[in-house]
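worker-3 :: picked 4-hydroxy-3-methylbut-2-en-1-yl diphosphate synthase (flavodoxin)
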Amino acid sequence: MKKETCLSHAFARRQSVAVQVGHVTVGGGAPVVVQSMTNTDTADVDATVAQVAALARAGSELVRITVDRDESAAAVPPIRNRLDRLGVSVPLIGDFHYIGHKLLTGHPACAQALGKYRINPGNVGFKDKRDRQFADIIAIAIRHDKPVRIGVNWGSLDQELLTRLMNNNAAQGSPSGAQEIMRETVVQSALLSAARAEELGLPRNRIILSAKVSQVQDLVAVNTMLAARCDYALHLGLTEAGMGTKGIVASAAAMGIVLQQGIGDTIRVSLTPAPGGNRAREVQVAQELLQVMGLRQFIPIVAACPGCGRTTSTVFQELAQKIQEDIRRNMPAWREKYPGVEALQVAVMGCIVNGPGESKHADIGISLPGTGESPAAPVFIDGKKAATLHGDTIAADFEKMVADYIEQRFSIQ
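worker-3 :: tokens ->
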């Protein structure tokens, strides 16, 4: 992963232990890593390769895949090989539940091809089998030198631990509420499992913790508690966030609060896609969250006004949309051709009220004429008026000016 620093120094990042996942560094002060997960049947090699590649092109730096049966475990090595041939180096995370110990033991090529294992202490095994099966997975991780994410999910909590903490709480003179005990169970499950992994020989720099819950305040609480009680790298995510704007708003609200405290080393936005929807949308949202918080830069920012009674024309809306779409489509190639282009700021404004001022603040900006204004569009470059556009080709002319500006400023000399 390219070396990168925080854009904003308004708050300090929590210092966690660095974990190497393939070529990607998680924690240790490294930039917050964006990850995602496929929803294909992993046994379908073609579909899984296509989706992993699409997620990686969108900017996912880690991609998790489901490994739930022998067929999916057997498919992991060919998936890895196909991705490598395509030049897609994104590390793959194997998501294991219930029989992970059997799959990793029975498919050593799968164990080697994965960049990291993800296990849930609540369903790695039950009763007397739990400790043994957990130990088996940790032993395999040590043998293959793989990091492990111990991912607690409150939908599948360790029931024995929960019952014990509930009983202990009930015996207190002033017992805590059920929600507080649930949060404490999530935190203790992660910490106890990590401690056990270390006892078994897995180094601290091969452990990542996550505490997945589905409510905003619970996510803030459990991750604040975890951060205060350990220095493991932490993965953030609101599980079952939901669809559309609800999932986006809930994820951004929850993780934004925690990230603002300097907590979190890698994130996923777990959106439910619309039927036939684009899985890469969750990557875009995660990137935008980190970018608007000043933690990462992924893509040029297009500032555009919301429109009002002064802006009856739709030209500025169409132009802003066109430029944003062009940027997203071209970014994979631009990252190589134009180093630093992700820092570009473009402004597309709809009238004279804030148009010239916003355009001057951007690297390149245009103020389109609003209702009753002169049919002219001043263009500002690096804070100075560079041209005034007229006529029916204003949008096309400005698009060309943006392309020329990128070429002149960011091309490799």
